[in-house]
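User: Assemble these into one structure.

Assistant: Restating your components, then the assembled model:
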Amino acid sequence: MRVLFLGLSSAFMLIIFSMSSLEAKERQTDPDGCLICHALEGLQYVDKKGVLRVASIDKADYFSSLHGSVPCTDCHRVKTYPHDVKEALADCAGNCHVEEPSKGEAFTHKAVVKEFQKSTHGQGRVKDFGGGDRLDEEAEQNPSCRRCHSNTAYIPEHQMAKFKSEFEHTNTECGKCHLGETWMNQFSGHILRRLVGSRWNKQDINQSCTQCHADLKRMAKVKLEDSDTKQKNPASFRWQHSVESYERTLHSRLLEVGEEKGASCLDCHIQRGEGLHGHGILKDEHKLASTHPDQLGKTCGAVGCHEYAKSALNSGFVKTDMHALDQVAIPDVRALFDPNNWHRSWFWGGLISLVLALLMLLGSGFWLLFIYPKAKKSADPLLGSERFEQVMLGRKPKKAPVKATAAKTNVSQKTADAPLPSIEPAIEVNKANLAPTEPLPTSSGERADE
Amino acid sequence: MQAIEKLKAIPKAQKYRYALILLSSISFLGPLAYLPQLTGNSDLCGQLCMRRFYLYFPGMSVQDFFTHVSVAYIGVISFCLILLTTFLFGRLWCSFLCPVGGLAELGSRLLNDRWKIEFRSLPQVQIRYGYFGVYLVLMPLLGISACTLCNFITIPRLIEALSGEYRGLLYILSSVGFVNLGLLFILGFFASKGRAYCQLLCPIGAANGLMNRFGARFGFTHHIRVEKNRCTGCNVCARSCMCGAIKMIDKVAVVEQLSCMSCHECVDVCEWNAIEWTTASRHKTPKRIKKGVEIFPEPKWAAINPINEPATASNSSVGKRLNLGRLINGLIVSMVLAFVLTTTAWNVLAG
Ligand code: SF4
Ligand code: SF4
Ligand code: SF4
Ligand code: SF4
C-alpha cells in the first residue's frame, strides 16, 4: 500500500516536472547553433584576471524569458566560432529586433547614445550599449548604460497597475484593427513597456543617481577634467557632497514625503528640448548645460515648476544656490582641527557660540557672586524702558538728559500731560512692575554705578 | 523665593495659556513632533509651510500660484483655518498655540527683566508691514529665500539640536541658522515679554494681524475691546501686554488690533473690568430701563479707537500722530501695489 502511494505520488511529481519543462518549449530554432555549446552544463572558463566565468545558458530559463523567441545573434553579433568574448557583447546602439510598426524600421538607440556620449557621463570610456565586463565597470568612473538602466525592476511596482490597464487597452481597443500577433507583441511588449513601464517616478530617478553620487568614498576618487586646461583634477568638496547638499533643499524634502512637485536630480540636470532624450547631463560650465547660468531661466521655468523664472526680472531668484554647503555634515571630529575646513560656517558658528556661551557662563557666575547680592531686586529692561514709559504709557520724561531723545517723540510728549498722581494706582496694583519713584539715571548708568 | 512669588503672580488664565503653549510645542516640535508626523513630515516645512505660498514673483501666473498652493497644501489649509479663527475670535493661534512665538515668549519670561530689550514701543505696525511688503514682493525678486529669516525652521531645529539630533545641530551652526538663532535670542529670549519676532518679522503674524483688524470691525466677533468709560487709565494692561498692542491715549487704554493677539492678559490684570475679550454688545437691549432712562448704562465695547473725533485741544495732536503712522502705512501699501504693477507691465512689454 505504502509502496503504491509512493509510486503514485512520484509519478504525479514527474508529470508536474515534465509539464513545467514543457512550458519552456523551444521558441526559436537556434539557427546559429549557439545553444549547441552554451546549453551544456558546466561551460565555464577562467578569464585573464583569474575570475571563474559561467557561460552555460539554462534553456528553460532562456526560453521562458521575454527574449526567448529572439535568436541569440540578433543581439550578440558573433560571426566566427569559437568567438572572442568582446565579439559577443550586445550592442543595442545597433539595430534591434524590434520594429517600429508604423514605419517598419528596426528600432535603434543611436540618438540616445549620441546624446549620452556628449554628456558628462559619456566622456570616459565609450561603451555604447555594450556594458562589457561588469567587474571592470565597478572600477570605472563613468557609468555605462546599465548602471542606471538595470532591469531589476523591469516594470516598477508603482507602474504595474497602469501597465496592466494599458496592456488590456491595446489588446481590446488597438487589437480591433491591428490584427496580427507580431504587431501586438512588438507594441505591447516593447513600446508600451517603455512608455509606461520605464516611466520612473522622481524618487526612482534620484535613487539611480544617488547609488553612486551619495557614495562619498567613490566620489572622493572622482577626477574631473578642467574644460580649459584639460587637466584632470580631483572633484571639489562641493561636487562630492552634492547629494547631501541637495537633500537639505525643499526640492528633495518634498520628494522625501512623497510630494511629486519636488524636483529630482534630472529635473534640473538634463537638457530639455526637441529631439532630446533626457541623457544630456552636462557640466555646469558648459554653455548648453541646463544648469549653466544662461539656461537657468529655462530650466527653473519648466512647466509646472517655477514658470515665472523665465522672466528676466527673476534672475536673482534662479541663482539661488541649490547645493549650498552650509548644512553639509562635518565628516568626523578630526575635521574640526583641519585648517582647510575653517572657512566652513559650522566652524565659525561653533566658535562664536562657544565664546558667547563662555562669556555668559562667566558673566552669570560673576553676577551671582558679586553683583546680585547688592542689586535692586526688580529692574527695568536694559534698553528702551524709558521710551516705553513715554510712548506707550504717555508718561512725561523724568530727567533733563532724556529730553533729547524725548524730543523725537514730541507728539506723545505733548499728549502726555497726565499728572503723576494718576499713575499712582498703577504702582499699587502692579507690584511686580513697580516703577521706581525717585528719579533714576538710565538703567545702564545704574548698573555701572554698582 | 522670588521666583515662586513671581509664579504666583501670574494670572490663573495665563498659566493655562503657558501650559497650552508647552503642550503644542511638544506636539509640533521634535523629537516627538507627532502632529507633523501625522502627515509624514518631521518639521513645519515643505507641505506644512505657511510662509511661502503667497510670495509674489514678477511675471507669475495664476497657475504658478496654484502650484505653490498645492505644494504646501497642508500649510495653506492651516493658514486659512488660522485666519478664520482670527476673524471670529482674535489671534488665538498666535497667543495660545504657536510653538514658535510661544517658546520664545516663555523663554523670555524665565529671564529677569533687567537683561532685556524693550521693543514694544517701536512703531511696530509700520516696521512689520514694511518688512511684510519687502518679504512678499522684493525678497523673492532678489532671490532671498523665504526660509532665510524663518523662525519656523529655527525653533524646530533648535529643539532637535537640543535633543541631540545631528540635523538640528548642523542647521543651527550653518550661517543662516546662526543668524536666525541670533534673532531668536535678541527678538525672543532677550526681548521684553519675548514677542518681538512676532511683532516685527513674522509674515504669518502680519497676515493674521490684518485679519484681526478686519474682524474687529464687526460687532459679532470676539476681540479685545475697551469700555473707555470704565478705564481709569491705570496703564497696568499696557505694561503687561506682551505685544505692545495697548497704548495709553488720553489716559484711556487703546488696543491696536493689528498687534493684539487676544492673549487675555490685559483682561486678567484689569481690575476695573474695562477691557474684555467679547463681542461688541452682549445685550441687544439694556435690561434696566426706567421711564426711558438707562440706569446702569450697557457697556459700549469698542475694539477700534475712533480716531475721527472732533479735534479738541488735547486730541488734535493725537490725530496728527495717527495720521503720520497712517501715511506710512499707506505708503507701504501703495509701494507694494506700484511694484506689482510695474513688474507686471515690464513683463508684458518685454514679452
Ligand atoms: S524654512 Fe520657513 S519658510 Fe522655509 S519652508 Fe520651512 S517654514 Fe517655510
Ligand atoms: S506672529 Fe508668527 S511666530 Fe508669532 S505667534 Fe504668530 S505665527 Fe507664531
Ligand atoms: S488696566 Fe483696565 S483700567 Fe487700567 S488702563 Fe488698562 S483698561 Fe484701563
Ligand atoms: S491687548 Fe491684551 S489680549 Fe491683546 S496682546 Fe495685549 S495683553 Fe494680549
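The mean pLDDT of chain B is 88.
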